[in-house]
Amino acid sequence: MSKKVFVTGGAGFVGSHSCKAFSKAGWDIVVYDNLSRGWSEFAKWGDLIEGDLLDRQALSKAIRDTKPDLVAHFAAFAYVAESMNHPGMYYQNNVQGTVNLLEAMRENEVKNIIFSSSCATYGISEQLITEETPQKPINPYGASKMMAERVIQDFEQAYGIRHFILRYFNAGGSDPDHEIGERHDPEPHVIPLAIKGATDESFKFQINGRDFDTRDGTCVRDYVHVCDLARAHALAGDYLIDGKPSQIVNLGTGQGTSILELANAVSEVIGRPLDVSYVDRRPGDPPSLVASCAKAGDVLGWKPEMSDIDTIVRTAWEWMEIEKGRTL
Question: Where is the NAD-dependent epimerase/dehydratase domain (predicted)?
């Protein structure tokens, strides 16, 4: 039986890797992306429809024309610092965009959605985070994701649209086949910035804050390889198509890496020193975010396979070298 997935934000980092995973799992793919933060050349699997979630008419027409069995919703703004400076933009895009998508699904009788949510919905937690950990976001990005989750749950109550919400932690790495990778302009993410600090003498890698209540004073994060995240989305798609009940799960490794430890890993993997400087904390940054992935294992049979920090750094570095046109 053919299966078709409509992927919003499928030309972005996690979305494009998930499209590859969906393709491997036998899905037909339609990507819907406004390309404001995605790349047309990353839409390698299936057709690309250039469109915006805030354009209700175009969105509904795209779903009506393509008749998907499942929607996978990645399209969102996702930078904590930007959300602190421009909260309205985040609520409009991430929350209203999700409302528009669900309305388009309702109008066209599409009954399954996977939602790309975030550890940012939890805020500050000193314990290993489970799905029962209270959600207390401390920045507009996390709040917008939590609000979108609530909207999705309300649409199930009202219209029977089942969901699989994946709250994932810090995505990193790149496709080991080098077909796609992480590309942002400008680049806000810590792993590419650390790699740039080790490979570009003109660039100084900065760590935001050294006085957090962590083992070395720098933020601790749970890094998950983007290919592990992508595989979870394909598993969640098959789960929903099988008619099983809605779920919410974390995607993490249970192991935290501090920013300073990450910098040291980059130096070791690349074989070059990484000189760091410290600057002020960023508003909205929690000290530590580390997740239990036990429920993902129980529900999906998922566990991280590529998420050791060395593999994440190595595959990210390989992609960045290819992006610069170098030969590995």
Answer: 5-252
